[in-house]
Fold these 3 entries.
Entry 1:
Amino acid sequence: MNPATTPKPTNSTAPVLCLSWELGISEWKMAFSTALGQQPRRRTIPARDLARVQKEVEGAKAYFDLPSDARVVSCYEAGRDGFWLHRALCAQGIENQVVDSSSIEVNRRARRAKTDRLDAGKLLDLLWRWLLGEKKCWSIVRVPSPEEEDRRQLHRELMTTRRDRTRVTNRIQGLLFAQG
């Protein structure tokens, strides 16, 4: 198993600040807690504001009376933002996990509210369960190197361009056929 994705067991003497993210286009929702089931401290910051992220982490440590050198573990769902945030958080000393969004459990029978605020809280609970040793609560995504990520991006752009070309060609042919 990859040591970067293996949870380090938490013990009662070492304080841990857990942080979950919901990443939006214009703003990010953050949820902090120091224990499973604890009411999270929620914050909303402008997207991509890494200086503000560091201030919020320091503020959360003060709020929960944690030492400044307390371990910080965070997670967010893999998506549009790619992996630059993972690398930036690791550079700031934050242990981060990128989660496969399709692996997050949901109750399919119950009606479910879907908001970024609720999703951040759900991710926070799953992060605590994972830290406490429950390995199957979600799947962790392997973070590619920047070079691998760049290679993937070129391929995806090419595939998108080909689909766009096909869509436009089909539309033009349909219009011409309709006109005789």
Entry 2:
Amino acid sequence: MSRHETKPSWLRVRVPPSTSREVMSVINKKSLHTVCVEAKCPNQMECFAKGQATFLLLGPSCTRRCTFCAVDKTPVHPPDSNEPAQLAQAIAKMELSYCVLTMVTRDDLCDGGALHITKTIKEIRNLCPAIEMELLISDLNGNRDALDMILRTAPEVVNHNVETVPRLYPDVRPQADYKRSLDLLARVHSVDPQITTKSGMMLGLGETRGEILSTMDDLRKAECQLLTLGQ
């Protein structure tokens, strides 16, 4: 297609502005962060228009320097003690029946931010007792006590992404550890088999078909029940 030809209609997604403005208004008024915005997701407005957002806890900056991620790498700040209550109020305002909470990695905190996550979940359940929750958490630097603290809140789904095959970790996730991620997923299932375990991988980073299948085998051995594959 030359640059003068008409672009296909499916290339541009028209978003109803009212719903997206409502979601953004709630997020901004409560001074909350979303991975949608911080990670510069190209689909964020489409999701906002459907009343969907993935909340990002513990600030907009991360202590890790994964090469694939657009989340800010500037110095982090202490956790905002108002965030748990503000997020719970926002979720109640949006009348969500299912929410996804994710977090930046906070290697500067002794528990990786687990106490803050736990407080947030309790605040949400107090206002929205029927809500179901999915957590996308960091590896908490291998801190099992911190993980167990989060698991005691009994989220419906715990997601931790391995992101790529082990050979590519030095380039893609230089501060992460493949086995540590697998161990986290295995422990979730061991501590509470009622929690659904989930992980995700990116494709197109130079991995081979055999490496993908081998990683899938490792995830199954770690009792991972759901897997997403993306780009």
Entry 3:
Amino acid sequence: MNRQMLRRAGMGLLALALAARGDAQTGYDFLLEGGHVIDPRNGISAVRDVAIKDGKIAAVAPDIPASEALKRVDASGLYVTPGLVDIHVHAYPGEGTTYSRGFRSVYPDGFTVRSCVTTVADAGSSGWRNFDDFKSRIIDQSKTRVVAFLNIVGAGMAGDAEQNVADMEVEPTADTAMKHKGVIVGIKSAHFSGPDWTPYERAEEVGRLADIPVMVDFGSARVRTIAELFTKHFRPGDIYTHAYAGGGRGEIIDGKVNPAIFVAQKKGIIFDIGHGGSSFTFRTAAQAFKEGYYPDSLSTDLHIGSMNAAMKDMLNVMSKFLALGMSLDDVIVRSTWNPAREIKLEQLGNLAVGSPADVAVLRLEKGTFGFVGPRGGRLDGTERLGCEMTLRDGKVVYDLNGMTRERWDTMAPDERGGDPRWDGISPARPRPPTSSR
């Protein structure tokens, strides 16, 4: 074969390779087949296939051909939902490397993706004085999407600092919030024990300036009432967390739901669970359900104390609400689309085409389960949610039972495993050096 013939043959092979690559580029990177999709934003609760390409949702349909995807996973018998959105966590441990901030904050990735949570909002662990440290060390480094409610206290959630009214400055807090639009999603006021309304007034002023909601943990001072908070200070879209706390905050009065709550709901005020270490009671929840007082969003108030006590994780909180009588669809909307809207990140919490491919693959287990209350007692249930797989921006970041993997004994001896196009667990590693012997 002469040089010209070799050149033509080479060009032909190159054309075939380019055509094959073009065909692959028109297909999907990843396909979840046959799962029961629950996507509240788009009104879907049915068996569907979900296709992903370039980190985005590419299609949701009853039957997407497997041949159109580079990788497919059979999700039959499982639930496929948007990645869970937890708007009340503590993920800033403070400057340095020790657990020192607030209620002993956690580094998020160790507690989120394994619970099918892809987005968290830190609830006031940092203020304007230390937000840059939080952003550079935690937010920018985490596989989990981390956003924040900025504390109205400049020093953040650091014990007695939360009582320092002098450090509740409007201008630097607002400047920081507006500088980091989309990352700072709200303002937080928490644990104030004084009799006055200064923290809430200043938080609301920042919220108006930055056009973001205010989240309030109402603290311990009983001279203030939630009725006054709702009517005189809160705007529609502001968030009352620890909604089922009980314990004298005023959610229940004389055994009945405080009428101010129903008025506030009609006004558009948001009620968030924020379970935490001691901010949720079965007695309050049972009475709330009895009277039709339901939360808008479920959240954990994740910190080292709560995760090792009654709260545990987001799926355990969601399972408690199943045991209380809420339907699975209602639990999912309060853990995905509702919280995404509450923090004005409406590109999240849904499986619409073009949205980030943050996806939860859940197993609904049947059996006999017990759910612990922070103040004692147990709630029995017959269903419990578990996380099978989590995808963040289209990459698998958690895979409990190896659904994405082949059996090891069917693989070639030199098979290296992961494909970085879709697998976020263990991208292909370099081969070990070949022995010279």
